[in-house]
Amino acid sequence: MFHVEREIGGSAALPTELEPPAAAATVFGDRLDIARRYCAALATAGVERGLIGPREVPRLWDRHILNCAVVAELMPEGATVVDIGSGAGLPGIPLAIARPDLRITLVEPLLRRTVFLSEFIEAAGLDITVVRGRAEQSGVMKEAGGADIVTSRAVAPLAKLAQWSLPLLRDHGHMLALKGVSAAEELERDGESLAHAGAGKFEVLECGVGVLETPTVVISAERLPRAERAPRRRAEKEGSRRVGRSEGGMLRRGVERRRAGGK
Q1: pTM here?
Q2: N or C terminus: fewer CB in 10 A for the chain?
Q3: CA–CA distance from 240 to each of 163, 177, 230, 232 (Å)?
Q4: What are 59-95's pLDDT values in tens digits?
């Protein structure tokens, strides 16, 4: 019988094929054992509960755990990080293991996932907050808002991520979206939507260069204060107001003419 309490976060022997690669010691240092326990939890309870596909198990280190952890190089000391749509804890848990100075909140709407997250966090002794809900909900924004950084991985297209991520950030905070090789094309497609949502200073960055065989690709965008947002957006709003006033005036004049019997 599968025993959740023993497996999740507890010390567990990994099969040979799941032993950490050399890069893991570089990334996690003296906290590598916690990362090993997380890998074991994903390979067992994560699969049984449908959080990780069985085919992903042989690739847990390279494609998932290390892929997420190296994004920590973009984060300043002591940053508050909100991971939206955290799922099985990616990228939030690897970040917390690699960087215990970070203050991390995992936001996830599904109960079975938040139960897994809470069980592992408690058993592993990690200082992470789990919030059940969707990023756009007022309760989540109240509890997790004002963050320095909002992360996401395999959650939604960039335009939608901006709508969910930017409201959770403080001014000049950063949205970090872990993406694949098509990141530049996605940014080109959705860059205007990011600007309209209040973001600026877009970049496509690589993390883990020289450490991972395949670096992690991240789209970074900064939440701009209203005063620093693109003037074009304000001009568009002013133009809309002028059009509205003009159309309103035409409507009023038309009503007055009809009342007078004119056309």
Answers
A1: 0.83
A2: N
A3: 22, 32, 16, 12
A4: 999 999 999 999 999 999 999 999 999 999 999 999 9
